[in-house]
Amino acid sequence: MRNAVILLSVLVLLFSHSNAAILEVPQSHGTIQSAVDASAAGDTILISAGTYFENIVVENHELYLTSMLLLEDSSSVESTILAGDTLQPQNRIPC
User: By the 8 A CB rule, do 39 and 56 touch?
Assistant: First the structure.
């Protein structure tokens, strides 16, 4: 049942914007910021597990920024970290 709910959520997310694209980090974009810069309104950025030492700036449009939680199990949330400009634990954001 849980898998069906996740699958339904993914389908709704993917088809809620007819022109929306899925950008994958690091598979198709080396950094989260480069994926954000290449994105358009309604796009989804899927981030693989890892620690990303970058400050993300999103301007002028809405997008979905998520770990692989939508496609994998919940362990990807704790292993996908946006660390910002310092290595201090309080500046790390799981996604």
Answer: no
The answer for residues whose C-beta is within 8 angstroms of residue 13's C-beta and 6 or more apart is 44, 64, 70
> How many whole angstroms separate alpha carbon 92 and alpha carbon 84?
7
pTM given for the model: 0.69
Q: Are 81 and 52 in contact (CB under 8 A)?
A: yes
pLDDT in tens, 3-55: 655 655 666 665 555 678 999 999 999 999 999 999 999 999 999 999 998 88
What residue spans of the chain are helical by DSSP H?
2-15, 32-38, 75-78
Sequence-ordered list of residues with C-beta below 8 angstroms from that of 94, at least 6 positions apart, any chain: 67, 77, 78, 80, 81, 82
Alpha-carbon gap, residue 83 to 56, rounded angstroms: 10
- Inter-residue contact 25 to 47 (CB < 8 Å): yes
